[in-house]
Amino acid sequence: MVSSSNRRDIALAACLILLSSVHARAGGIFVTGHDPDFHAFQGGNLLGAQHIIQDGLKFVTNNNVGSVLLVTDLTDPGGGYSDPRKGLTAAGITFDVADNGSAGGSVKDLHTVNFSSYSAVVVASDFGGWLRQAELDILTARSSDIFNYLNGGGGLVAFAESGPPLPGLLTHGAFGYLPFLITGAQKNQSEVGNTVTPFGSSLGLTNTDVNGNASHNIFTRSGGLNVVDNDSSGQILSLAFFGPLGPGGPSGAVPEPSSVILLATGMAGLLGYGWTKRPKGS
Fold first, then answer.
1. DSSP code of 62?
2. pLDDT in tens, 10-52
3. How far, in Å, CA of 267 to CA of 275, rounded?
4. What's the confidence (pLDDT) of residue 4?
């Protein structure tokens, strides 16, 4: 005979297992004020920029970088910018491309592309990469799809988004597809005196990797993510997180303890009902 107390314990354990499975399925994000899609191909520290791309992708895919989707515009803005496809190629990454739907051919339409077909999505920088407002607006409109993708095990890597008055191609709404990062602030600074945190070191990055080029935005708060590196004044340059996410950040996708208890109580009631309805001797 299973006691009422034991049934509640079983139900609570089942809830905790369910929550653990959600964490196990979730993927990761890596967002940065660096623009390694530019500097991996040209700049003062090619290897450092390539390492940022490589280590960011390894982190968000749990060291299983497979198929990658690069989100970028494909219209060349001219001097001061570089085709982000060249930066990813220099880092040894193979990928498909998605834009606002104007390129056609083999280029995916960002409005309809299935994110879950890819192990990771990379969003190009708007300086010196080619990300434009059209692509950013589509990403922001598909924010719920992005969170579903991440919580289903997908990975996201996003490079610097600066906009005006810097030479960035965006006009507003940087990182709008990740609402908890709207506090990103514009910068245009040489990479001197940047430091990697212990968490950043765990990703494989070094101080050498995050210096020697330029960066174009900082984050004024972490949004619940892990700080990867800081600039010389201690401002946040890069953030990363692995686990469930929602519009409010890491806590946005995780049920509050009271919700877990309510769910457990409900399951306990159902279990109790099932056992009490069984005939004697069963």
1. T
2. 444 444 333 344 445 688 999 999 999 999 999 999 999 999 9
3. 12
4. 56
At 240 the three-state DSSP class reads strand
- 137: helix, coil or strand? helix
Residues 176-203: b if buried by 16+ CB within 10 A, e if exposed: bbbbbbeebebbebebeebebbebbeeb
Q: Are strands 108-109 and 120-123 parallel, antiparallel or unpaired?
A: unpaired
Q: At what angle do helices 257-276 and 4-25 cross, to 10 degrees?
A: 130
- Which residues, at least 6 apart from 108, have a Cβ–Cβ distance to it below 8 Å? 69, 96, 97, 98, 99
Q: d(Cα 151, Cα 9) in Å, to the nearest integer?
A: 27
Amino acid identity for residue 27 in this structure: G
- Regions of the chain with pLDDT less than 70: 1-25, 182-183, 251-282
Using one digit for the tens of pLDDT, what is the confidence trace for 127-141?
A: 999 999 999 999 999
The full DSSP string for 162-219 is --TTTT-S--S-TTTTSGGGTTEEEEEEE--S-EE-HHHHHTT--TTTTSSSEEEEEE
**Amino acid letter at 137?**
D
SS3 assignment for 68-115: EEEECCCCCCCCCCCCHHHHHHHCCCCCEEEECCCCCCCCEECCCCCH
Q: What pLDDT sits at residue 6? A: 59
List the one residue out of 163, 169, 73 whose CA is nearest residue 123.
Answer: 73
Distance from chain centroid for Cα 260 = 26
- The SS3 call for residue 263 is helix
Tokens encoding 208: 């050498």
